[in-house]
Amino acid sequence: MSELSAGARARANIALAKYWGKADEALNLPAVPSVSITLDPLVTHTRVRFDASLAGDRFLLDGAPANAKELARVGALLDRVRAEAGLSQRAEVVSTNDFPTAAGLASSASGFCALSAAARAAAGLPFDLAVISAMARRASVSAARSAYGGYVELPLCEPSALAPDAHAAVPLCPPEHWPLRVVVAVTAEGRKKVGSTGGMIHTAATSPFYGAWVESSPELAAQVRAGIVARDLVRVGEAMEASTLAMHACAMAARPTVIYFQPPTLAVLAAVRALREEQGIAVYATADAGPHVKALCHADDAPRVAQTLGATEGVLRTLTAEPGPGVELEAEA
Ligand code: DP6
Fold it and tell me: What is the CATH number of the domain that holds 150?
């Protein structure tokens, strides 16, 4: 059954304009537009093999069987592929991350995007980036953006859309358009984190600021998009910081609160501001559903930024990433 097997690789991405909140939970449609950079060298490799002798789907993540929750999410995507391709065989999914899961960047975006591409190819479905992106989005919204390389947007899905299930990311600019750097400051892990799905659903249900967040997000995404096209780091950076802090402020105002920041998070945010205000370096910070901080800067400034953030109290290590390509099929290893 070797023809029912395929592999793909996809990279992590970091949102410059943040997604936080769902317009439709069942269809997993975002309530706000988001804009991201697809990052090298943060790659997930995934192989999918449909096999009639398997009694159930299997999912190995970095060599270990995944837990029931992860397996259910993977199984739901596989079910959609099976329905579309007319297959009934269960599948074995083997996924490995080139970057440590503790790198401070979620592997779910690269993981679901690689899974979407590999499962479709294994089932004999044609390679179509928009379809791969929409299918990845259904599993995890941020994963839609990893389908494309460089700078990517996931727009709002208009309520009047005829096929909301086909809602996908769109490429904005290729990686070579603007070779920025993202310096990830990995901070000490504090308490167990609230996952992004649960965190945003709880925020939408209880934060008094959620309405303002949804209303103000499109303008921030437009600023980020225009700044990318014009290669204007000040414009992108200011809008990115505004988007980041609005998202976190909105989550912090939820009841009970959702706080992702830890003391080192604030120390790194202050260090980034000091680099900008005292050293004149164009560097801007963002943070997702965790305590780590990612700093956006020009390539020339990245070593200096990495050195400063690496020396900031509570930072375990830094990692420097750059714009990379979108999802690709992979030959058998
Ligand atoms: C803070 O894409 O993980 O990283 O759709 O529920 O799987 P689900 O959420 P997910 O949320 C990512 C949130 C974020 C911001 C972003 O990547 O845009």
Answer: 3.30.230.10
